[in-house]
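If your schedule permits, I should be very grateful for your opinion on a structural question. The matter concerns a single protein, recorded as an amino acid sequence and a row of backbone structure tokens. Could you please explain, in whatever detail you think fit, how the structure tokens follow from the sequence? I set the record out below, with my sincere thanks for your time.

——
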Amino acid sequence: MASWDDLVRFVYEEYTVVAATEGEVRVLVEFEDERSQLVVLSREVLDRRHEWVQIASPCGLVANVDLVGLLEEIGSATVAGGAAIMGDHVVVRHSLPLENLDLNEFVDPMSLVAGTADQLEEQFAGGDAF
């Protein structure tokens, strides 16, 4: 992949896109246990010249999540991604440069972010709202 547009074309071919705007694509990832997870892909530009994709997936509302417990869990059990607060939500997110990005360098981290967010949502929010 070399650009945001290339990534978007790939995502439309391989995933269930539930919404899209300029610079953002929302994907629904469905798991075998009938749970699902929303993943937001956003185009980011570093230093006004380097395209990146940010992969973010909500795992709960800030007001309802034990942030210390969640951060400890991420610190001990997460390979890809870290936690952030975006608006009212706690998200698991990871970013990748698009230049020379190979498919497995996108697919695997996106799967890990979605799976981690879903697991954290179940563990810390007790449901499947996202």
User: Anything to note?
Assistant: The chain has a mean pLDDT of 90. The longest strand covers residues 50-61. Helices lie at 4-14, 67-77, 103-125.
